[in-house]
Design goal:
Elements: H1 2-14, H2 20-25, H3 43-46, H4 48-54, H5 57-74, H6 83-92, H7 97-101, H8 107-127, H9 133-148, H10 152-157, H11 160-171, H12 179-259, H13 265-293, H14 311-322, E1 326-331, H15 339-359, E2 365-371, E3 375-382, H16 396-399, H17 404-414, E4 418-423, E5 429-436
Parallel strand pairs: 1-2
Antiparallel strand pairs: 2-3, 3-5, 4-5
Helix pairs in contact: 5-6, 5-9, 6-8, 8-9, 9-12, 11-12, 12-13, 12-15, 14-15, 15-17
Length: 443
């Protein structure tokens, strides 16, 4: 019994399609009770290759052709004409299906094959009474596939010959006055109409689904683009407005601690803590801005913003915060500009003054506006140590890794302008912007 079990196990490994009980029962001398094992599908029938072969257009068309030939041989006595012509018509009514079923075929080849098959079917039915069942199935498949492929007009036109043949036999014209031909023509016309309608409906449904998917993708793209623009706008506003005021808090706290006479130690400690807290808030804000700017495009500001009329207030505020000299120099013919140009100029000056307070505390700053016919030239210069000067806790060079200069360049670029930053001649740091105003100047 041990040897029988070992042999059964070996057979099970060699014959995976058989069960262990079947292998054991096949051994001589092993008379186990008869059991019914579940039927295991043939590996050939489960093979994807076999399924793909069975679904091949060539296999289907050849199969229909063989069925048509067999039907012709069975119906030889009732057919008009000789056997060879009947077999030829049977082949002509089935084999062209391969050109319609194949998805890689061109549209003109597919249409020509469909017209040739319909012509052969009508000729076989009207003249020789030799339209086989396989030929009728091929005709239904052709009109259905044409409807699904996006050729509804041709699919409907291929039904019309059967309608005309049915009407001709009903009216008794020529040799078509045959009840069998009329019945077959009516049946094929009815079924072909249904097949064509089914194919056209499926094509319309598929096209509608594809159109809906395209619209959804387009809407998602628009929403993503709008979200990116909004993120960029929020990042700019946080940096230009909130960071500006927090930086002023730090500067004022440090100035008060160093310049107030007779300040108690407790008060100095509190002012130092205020400055440290403000600087920590600026650091955290830079991290937040990095997240907001990630994968965000520059957007267009859509809400009211300050303009050049508020420059005097901004300069007074900067002068009061630092105690240093800040001047505004205006040249040229002053004229109102478009809101976008004025917002851009104001934000660039605001950011430049903030950078000057941080990187060159106590330095004098000149803000110069030059109104020209074609552009507005903006210059903000301080007389501090500049990028290569002695360390002051900050440096203009270090700021290049931040968002200040980047935000100014983005704002200038949104209105078609340019911005240049770097050491000023004779010392200090210079921010120079040129914004076009010819197209935006208001009358």
């Amino acid at each position: 019994m041990n040897k029988g079990a070992e042999l059964a196990d070996a057979l099970r490994r060699l014959l995976p399609g058989r069960t262990a009980s079947a292998a054991t029962r096949s051994l001589p001398g092993n008379r186990s009770p008869t059991t019914h094992s579940p039927t295991v599908p043939s590996p050939v029938m489960r093979s994807p290759v076999a399924l793909s072969v069975l679904r091949s257009p060539v296999v289907l068309s050849v199969g229909l052709a063989l069925l048509a030939c067999v039907e012709v041989l069975v119906r030889t006595a009732g057919l008009r004409g000789n056997l060879a012509l009947s077999v030829l018509l049977a082949l002509c009514t089935t084999l062209p299906v391969v050109f319609v079923l194949a998805p890689e075929r061109r549209a003109d080849t597919r249409n020509a094959a469909a017209i040739a098959l319909t012509t052969a079917c009508v000729l076989a039915l009207e003249s020789f009474h030799a339209l086989t069942l396989a030929g009728a199935v091929a005709q239904l498949a052709v009109v259905h596939l044409l409807g699904r492929a996006g050729a509804p007009l041709l699919s409907v036109l291929l039904v019309l010959p059967y309608v005309g043949l049915a009407l001709a036999t009903a009216a008794g014209f020529g040799h078509s006055a045959d009840s069998t031909v009329r019945i077959v023509a009516v049946l094929v016309a009815t079924l072909a109409s249904a097949a064509a309608a089914t194919g056209i409906t499926r094509h319309v449904r598929t096209a509608a689904q594809a159109h809906s998917a395209t619209e959804r993708a387009f809407a998602d793209t628009l929403l993503e683009h709008a979200a990116r623009g909004e993120r960029a706008r929020i990042a700019r506003e946080l940096h230009d407005v909130v960071a500006h005021h927090i930086s002023m808090i730090a500067v004022q706290a440090e100035t008060a601690r160093l310049t107030t006479q007779g300040l108690p130690a407790d008060g100095a400690t509190r002012l130092l803590a205020i400055g440290d807290t403000a600087r920590a808030a600026l650091t955290e804000m830079r991290r937040l801005l990095g997240v907001l700017r990630e994968d965000a495009d520059a957007g267009v500001t859509r809400r009211p913003q300050p303009g050049l009329r508020q420059l005097l207030e901004l300069i007074d505020e900067s002068r009061d915060a630092t105690g240093s000299g800040t001047r505004l120099i205006v040249s040229g013919t002053v004229a109102p500009l478009a809101p976008g140009i004025e917002v851009t100029a104001f934000r660039i000056v605001q950011e430049a003054l903030t950078n000057a307070r941080r990187h060159a505390p106590g330095a004098a700053v000149d803000v110069e506006l030059r109104y020209g016919d074609d552009d507005l030239e903006l210059r903000v210069r301080d007389n501090g140590p500049g990028p290569g000067g002695p360390p002051t806790g900050f440096s203009h060079t270090a700021d290049r890794a931040g968002h200040g200069l980047l935000g100014m360049r983005e704002r200038a670029a949104t209105v078609g302008g340019t911005l240049r930053t770097g050491p000023a001649p004779g010392g200090g740091f210079l921010v120079e912007a040129r914004l076009p105003v010819r197209a935006e100047a208001l009358a």
